[in-house]
Design goal:
single chain; 284 residues; alpha+beta; six-stranded antiparallel β-sheet; 10 helices
């Protein structure tokens, strides 16, 4: 029989206990957790957990799966989180310091790239001292996923089934370029997946240009974008490349750990291309 105080470290009030259960279910596998498993992990009596589960279920925060006795977070909870912030995006604001640090350290042009459907779009850019050309051009430019270093690394980090659908859709869009085909796209994607970064050196329409890109992955392990450096191909030599990749990864990890996965700029990036506001200037 469970005692009311199974674990001295268990939350001591109803609200804290409810949030403890929500956090447990956030880390649950796809099949969810049974009541007994939740009670054990939370260090609470089963009777207490049962009451809390019924209260959370009544508020549509969790749901009991119809084909089992397991519990999981509800779609309403995700919808609630997605509506937070009133449509205001902090994504560019949060990423801008990383772009500035990279541009200052490398003296090259740095890009913030995000996925939109079957494409990748440039959401922000810090210009380096050396003039370069890029496939996306300025902020707002886009290319199909799989094209360019950012398109390659984002595509490489997507789940296999999703990646295959994108390749199937985008290959016909790229064939007119003459230097792109399905084989070259797959080779570039597999190489990016193996290296965990994508490198482009002097190929295609910009033979004197090069670039390297690292994916931005959120706390759930989902790729949400990429940080890219564009430079003259000669600047991405064997001596500089490891250092560039190391700096990109450090900033990508920093962004991934603080980003809100429900930020509207990640769902509708083109609506936020001109909406950057420095810290403290959030619209009221």
């Amino acid at each position: 029989m469970n005692s009311p105080d199974i674990n001295d470290k268990a939350p001591s009030n109803g609200l804290s206990r409810g949030f403890a259960i929500i956090r447990l279910l956030a880390d649950a596998p796809a099949e969810g957790f049974r009541l007994k498993e939740i009670a054990t992990r939370a260090g609470l009596a089963q009777a207490t957990v049962h009451r809390l589960l019924k209260s959370l279920e009544g508020e549509n925060v969790i749901e009991q799966m119809s084909n089992s006795k397991n519990y999981r977070l509800s779609l309403d909870l995700y919808s609630l989180a997605a509506r937070s912030g009133g449509g205001y995006s902090r994504f560019r604001e949060q990423c801008r310091p990383s772009l500035l640090r990279l541009a200052g350290s490398l003296n090259d042009t740095v890009f913030l790239m995000v996925r939109t459907g079957f494409d990748v779009v440039c959401l922000d850019r810090i210009e380096g001292p050396l003039p370069i050309r890029s496939l996306t051009g300025d902020v707002g430019g886009r290319v199909p996923l799989g094209m360019g270093q950012a398109g390659s690394i984002i595509l490489a980090l997507l789940p296999q089934t999703e990646r295959e659908e994108i390749i199937r859709f985008n290959v016909p869009r790229l064939l007119h370029l003459g230097y792109f085909d399905e084989v070259s796209l797959r080779v570039a994607t597999e190489k990016a997946a193996k290296n965990n970064y994508a490198l482009s050196l002097g190929k295609g329409p910009l033979p004197e240009m090069g670039g390297v890109s690292v994916g931005i992955v959120d706390r759930q392990g989902q790729v949400i974008g990429a940080l890219s450096v564009g430079a003259l191909a000669e600047r991405l030599n064997a001596e500089r490349l490891p250092h560039i990749v190391q700096l990109l990864r450090a900033e990508a990890d920093r962004i991934g750990n603080m980003i809100n996965p429900f930020d509207p700029a990640l769902r509708r990036p083109t609506q936020y291309l001109g909406s950057f506001e420095p810290a403290g200037n959030k619209p009221t």
